[in-house]
Amino acid sequence: MRQDTRLSRLLHVLLHMAQTEAPMTSEQIAQMLGSNAVVVRRIMAGLRNAGYVAAERGHGGGWRLVRPTDQITLMDVYRSLDEPDLFAFGFSNPAPQCLVEQAVNATIETTVSEAAAALRQRFGQIRLSDIEQDVERRWQVLRDLRY
């Protein structure tokens, strides 16, 4: 099963952007992600349209975060990606005649729907600033180990 890594990759980029004053070019971001600049521009467009980043053209231009990290939730970023499927479960037959398969489908559908709702709710509670704090804690542990 192929995993959709766009959310984690985009969060990674946004947190790096938050750590610098300088704009990041699509090429720089693509190099960081092992991707290409066209893909980066496509993914960043959703964030731009939602007002979380801005693109500056010309020499010295690039992508810049325009909202503080405490004003951006994981749900905001997830929505900017057009809310991709959270789970890859499906039915071998979406309209079965078999009562057993109907019950199986209903159980899976209900359970996945409930899990997706809970995950979306949690995404709305987590801010980029929360992840920044975790990064800082990790840096502190690393610094403590070095000294």
From TrEMBL:
Q: Which domain of life is it from?
A: Bacteria
Q: Which InterPro entries match?
A: Tscrpt_reg_Rrf2 (IPR000944), WH-like_DNA-bd_sf (IPR036388), WH_DNA-bd_sf (IPR036390)
Q: Which PROSITE patterns match?
A: HTH_RRF2_2
The record's PANTHER family line, in alphabetical order, gives: HTH-TYPE TRANSCRIPTIONAL REGULATOR YWGB-RELATED, WINGED HELIX-TURN-HELIX TRANSCRIPTIONAL REGULATOR, RRF2 FAMILY
What GO CC terms are in its UniProt record?
cytosol
What organism, scientifically named, is this protein from?
Gemmobacter megaterium
Per its record, how is this protein called by name?
Transcriptional regulator, BadM/Rrf2 family
Single GO term (MF): DNA-binding transcription factor activity
